Amino acid sequence: MDSRSSQLKSRKLYSWYVVFLLALLSIISYADRLILGILVDPVKAELDVNDTQMGFLLGLSFSFVYATLALFLANVADRHNRRNLIVAGVLIWSVMTSASAFSSGFWQLAFCRLGVGLGEAALGPAALSIIADLFEKQRRHTPVSVFLSAGVIGGTGAFIIGGAAVLFVSQMSNVAIPIIGDLSPWRLVFLCMGLPGILLGFVMLASVREPARRIDEQADGPGAAATAQVVAHLKERRGEYLPIFGGMLFVQMMVYAVASWYASVLIRNYGLSISSAGFSFGTVGLIFGTAGAILGPFFAGQLERRGRRDAILIVGLFAVGIAAPATTWAPIAPNVSLSLAAMAVVMLCLSAASALAPLLPQLIAPNAMRARVTALYFFIANIIGLGVTPIIVGFINDAGLFGVSGINEAVSVTAAVLLPTSFIILFVGRRALTRYQSDAMARST
């Protein structure tokens, strides 16, 4: 009995070790993905590009290949070794992040951003599939929320790291590195950001083994489902997937608009330095964004245990309803203190809402297609959310609709359109999710 108890404890500790290692990789991936957000102005000046082009570099140059390949790599994850897939992806995106330091123009940086997207496409679906195989269905909420909250830590931590790095190296002007030569501050930030991922990639290769695939009560049997079966499943359950994926798409669009441009709002409209903007926005996001990513799934789980079959949508509606006015007002607040206070509410609520959508495939999709259903959500959220929204905000500003420094109004108007739309879609979808949960309960009795 003692031996069995010891084995169970060891297995549990190992499972949580894997979760935290995957979470660290997620932190690094989001930091590498979003670090450009704090470096917009120096990159823009040195490479001679406008805000629309910066929107492309912030979004579509990364998201198109990321979202497209995520679908293909999710199919690989459902059929082959997920550990090895993640390790390969980590090494690719880390090398391309460091290579961004040597970009001499717009297209070179766009190519490096494409490479970062190629590598990061391997992580999300494969990691969530591994976590689902390490934990029983009723115990997945917490490890999944830990993994998802890591993205918030990485995304907002990128601004803190970037701000600190810019402050440090700016005091030395350009930095001379043996063999490489002189690097301006923003280039040195990119060079250093790629190194931790390379190290952790080898740690994962040495310490993590591919888990056995769990055959749960919703799976038809071992092995991966055919693509036709995935399509049939999505069609059958479209009433549940569409409200979540559709409503949360607009949330993700706003998340990426804020992540891409709010640091520039602080710099251009409130007069903060790059380092101060990074510290301020990063700290607010790190505290409140992380709290939201954990609390969203937590409250959904609590409501589910109390019999609320529409718990995911209830929490999502509550979060979006609060986020809509706060996000609209934060960029145009009369002073920086009020703007950051409103942004704390924004990060808490948007993170809580966006953490809910990836939970749905883990609850509804059979194991044999779970990674691909999850990848479909990431595809939609990234190709439109990250790919399009930064360009829209940059274009609105370049068009001069709000004057020379109207990036704050551009972000505010975007929020005023996207978040009320999200709320309406989520509200309409409550009935379908409740009906599915009732049918599932009836089948299990």
Fold blueprint:
Layout: H1 2-34, H2 40-47, H3 51-58, H4 60-79, H5 82-99, H6 106-120, H7 123-134, H8 141-170, E1 175-177, E2 181-183, H9 185-193, H10 195-207, H11 227-236, H12 238-270, H13 274-305, H14 311-329, H15 336-354, H16 359-364, H17 370-398, H18 407-444
Antiparallel strand pairs: 1-2
Helix pairs in contact: 1-5, 1-7, 1-8, 1-10, 3-6, 3-17, 4-6, 4-7, 4-17, 5-6, 5-7, 5-9, 5-10, 7-17, 8-9, 8-13, 12-13, 12-15, 12-17, 12-18, 13-14, 13-15, 14-15, 14-18, 17-18
Low-confidence stretches: 217-223
CATH class category: Mainly Alpha
CATH superfamily (homologous) name: MFS general substrate transporter like domains
DSSP strand tally: 2
* Second CATH tier, the architecture: Up-down Bundle
Annotated CATH topology? Growth Hormone, Chain: A
The arrangement of helices and strands along the chain is HHHHHHHHEEHHHHHHHHHH
**Can you give the helix content as a percent range?**
over 70%
Main sheet strand line-up: 1-2
**Residue share in β-strands:** under 5%
Helix/sheet category: mainly alpha
* Count of domain modules: 1
Q: Compute the number of helices.
A: 18
The description of the largest β-sheet is: 2 strands, antiparallel
Distance between the termini: 32 Å
Radius of gyration: 21 Å
What would you say about this model in short?
By secondary structure, the protein is an all-alpha fold. It has helices at residues 2-34, 40-47, 51-58, 60-79, 82-99, 106-120, 123-134, 141-170, 185-193, 195-207, 227-236, 238-270, 274-305, 311-329, 336-354, 359-364, 370-398, 407-444; strands at 175-177, 181-183.
